[in-house]
Structure formats: C-alpha cells, structure tokens
Amino acid sequence: MDRLQAMNVFTKVVETSSFSRAAGVLDLPRASVTVIIQQLEAHLRVRLLQRTTRRLNLTPDGAAYYERCVRILADIEETESSLENSGKAPRGKLRVDMPGALGRMTVMPRIHEFHTRYPGIDLMLGFGDRPVDLIEEGVDCVIRIGTLQDSRLVARRIGVYQGVTVASPDYLKRCGVPESVEDLERHVAVNYFWGRTGRIMDWTFEVDGRPVKVKVKGQIAVNDADAYVEGGLEGIGIIQAARFMALPHLRSGRLVEILSQWKPLPMPISVIYPHNRHLSPTVRVFVDWVADLFSECELLSGQGDLKVHRSPTLLASVDDSNRLDAATNAAAPVT
C-alpha cells in the first residue's frame, strides 16, 4: 500500500463527503478508492469512517488522523513547491469568490496592480454571496463576511465589516425619525434575504454593551447589496447597509444615519481557504496582496471612523415637518 496515496485519498473522501466525488477529483475508479480506504483502516487497525446509506461520518480516530494527514500533505506540498518555484514568480490559475459589492468597489479597481505584479497568475473572480463549497467546486479561496463555521477551512482576517442604519430624507419626513431601537417596531424596512435559504437577515445593534437582534417588518426583500441600498435611496424603508456602500450617499445627503447611539455589530472580513491549499504560492500571494489592500482602506480596516454626522439640521427639519403634520391632523375634524 502506498501510504502517501492512501492519505491523499482519505482526505479527499473526508472533504467531499463521498467516495464517488473523491474518485472523480482524483481521477480514480470508485472501487479503487474503496479498496484504498479499506487497506488503510486495516493497516492502522482502526475504523476511520462510519458509513451509512446517506452519509459518511468521521470516527474520533478518523478525525484525529485527518488533521495529521492535512498537515503532512501540506508540508510535502510546501517542500515541493519551494524547490520547483525557487527564484520563480508564482504561476497558474487561481479561482477566487467574493461578495459582489465588496469585489466591485474594493478589489476590482486595484486588480490591475495584482496582475502587474504577478503576470503568470490567471485569475478567475466570482462575485456573489451564495455559500461556496471550496473543495467540491474547485475554488482556491473566498472572501467572506462573518465567522468561519467549517473546521476544514482556514480563515485569515483581513478587515472589519461595519454597518450603519440609514434612511432617505423622504422616508424620514413621511414616517418620522426613530429615536430608539424599540421605535423600529413602528417603521418599515427594506429587508435582505439569503438567496440559498430565503431567510431574512436580522438586524443587529449593540445596546448597553450586549448584542441585540431585531426584525423589522417590510414588504420588499432583496438578495443583492446594490438593490438593497437602492431601496433605501428610493425611500421604500430603512436599511442597515455596509458602511463602505452607504458613505457616498451619506455625504451627498441622499441617506441619513439614524440610531447612531446603537451601532450595528461589526463582523470580520476574512480570506478563507482549505487546509490543504494554504501553502499554495498562488493563494499565498493573493491573500497577502488583498490583506494589504484592505489595510489601506479606512472603511474596511477597522481603523477609520465614519466622517458623517447625523445631519442635525436635516433631522430637525424632518422633526418639525412631522410635528406640523401631527398638529394639523389633530386639529382636523373627525368625519
């Protein structure tokens, strides 16, 4: 038995959760994959996988062995790559996936710099918020917002996502200015839903040092960040948008920050990649480059502050308008 091949086959079975998919990735007959795993378990004298008709599960011994295999295979890959690429610039294809708005506004305006520095790397850039199975779909790394849930992956934090709660002046004149988180019960939102599940995204606030989730009613929900901001601009409802997307409209006055005392909870922005690819030269140079890119952006590095105030003059005029409307309605005869 070739133990190195057996380790490679075993990790692919774990990462794809399937003998058949692992066979496809490795270009081996499925029967060969089955035999190799059986031989490996016989050699180790332990059961590595629990097989059922629906899924595969790692045994405790299998989980421990998988972690060791990943490190050993990564060390071998690093050693071979260092010899093969000694004195050479990284070359090859690199497939990266990232949120659409983040990619369009932050990465794409500077991507020519990466291409100039690494002309031997052919980039395939995907834009979207849907969950991506890096192993099964052959994606080398992804940029994602939020915490990492998959233990098969590695996350390197490169920035901070900061939200801001905003509405258009037109909406605030019609519906009033919420003065507390509780006031949102009487307001309308443009909601954001996750395309894969259809679940509406909760809003989050930090209230008295603790996180609070809030659901705001709304008749329109979208699953695109640009459309989400556009809904806020058109006065359809309040939105809790990415600060880097809202800032130009805050500066122009088309959006106004509300509830500024209670900020949305910040979330990490990370580059995520599989354990067994974290030493790939192409992945490494892209991760280093995009980390430097985000560190230079105050809105995403977590170092800057929002240089826009609540526009008290505008909000005062909105409040005056609402008080006038309320007084007029109160004086109107009951019919």
Automatic annotation (TrEMBL):
Gene3D superfamilies: 3.40.190.290, Winged helix-like DNA-binding domain superfamily/Winged helix DNA-binding domain. It comes from the Bacteria. GO terms for molecular function: DNA-binding transcription factor activity; sequence-specific DNA binding. Residues 1-59 form the HTH lysR-type domain. Signal peptide: none annotated. The lineage of its organism: Bacteria, Pseudomonadati, Pseudomonadota, Betaproteobacteria, Burkholderiales. This is LysR family transcriptional regulator. GO terms for biological process: DNA-templated transcription. It holds the Pfam family HTH_1. Keywords: DNA-binding, Transcription, Transcription regulation. Belongs to the LysR transcriptional regulatory family.
